[in-house]
Amino acid sequence: MTDSSFSWEYAYAYDLLEEINGKLERNTKIQALELACKESVLSNNQLISEYSQSLKLIKSVQMNVDEFFDSIAAYVRQYIDEKHMTDELYENITLDLTRQFLNLSSMFRSLLDHSDFSISRLCGKESPEFKKWKASQSELYDAHSEYRLFYKLRNYCQHVGIPPFTFQLEDSMGSEEVTLQLDLKTDILLEEKSVWNSQLKQDLRAFPENLPVLSFLEVWYNCFQKLSEVLLDIKASKVYSAASEIVNLRVEHDLPAEVGKLCLLGLPLEDSNSDSLNMHMSWLPESSAQQIVSRVNRENA
Hints:
The chain is of the alpha+beta class. The protein has helices at residues 38-82, 87-123, 128-143, 145-159, 186-190, 198-206, 213-238, 240-252, 286-300; strands at 6-20, 23-35, 165-171, 178-185, 210-212, 261-268, 280-283.
């Protein structure tokens, strides 16, 4: 059967406890709400997925950040417990932290690359939204040398190799406090002059020879958070209308919040040639739609 053989409606699916033969049984009920245009609904779902994809990428970067700092805390605890550092353990820790740093750098650049393409496809390369996105990146790049270095380190990894990290664990005299110092060797980075533009060369000369990675990452992380907010604001504003259509269904039909699920339901037309009941159902992205509407309403409040 083709789509033209179906009648498409918004519907509400929910579970209901019913007494059948003296026993309580849970049955799923489906309540038709109003007619729907399948193409329009699927188009709206695709728009909302643009926001969801950006949010997933942002969360992926955040997970890499959390993993990196959790590993540092774990290695500090391990050292406190064992009070011993072998050459093999030193190499393993260095390799592990370097691996995680590279994953973080790569994931962040993937977020930027995907966002460039996604916003240009959604809004157009000449749109105010795309120009705002690129301007936000440029402002942070121009304002923070730490952001510039983090942004360009992926180029170093691609053309040269693993960045030169060193670390040491330090005991505080008279206490059990232990500090892990992770540094980036800027003098070694500068040896590969072909990788850096003139601005980055100047930055590297201005940085200390042993650049503390944690303080350097703190500046970058603040920039990442600002970019994330700009990205989500752009996406949410662009797909607000599509999200509102889903959110308003519960209001218009007086449906309880957080009970049941909204869906697109396709039922065969009465004159369709079929000996059996074929039904198509696809869930609507309610959670993402609600996040989008709440975000835009909060910004406009």
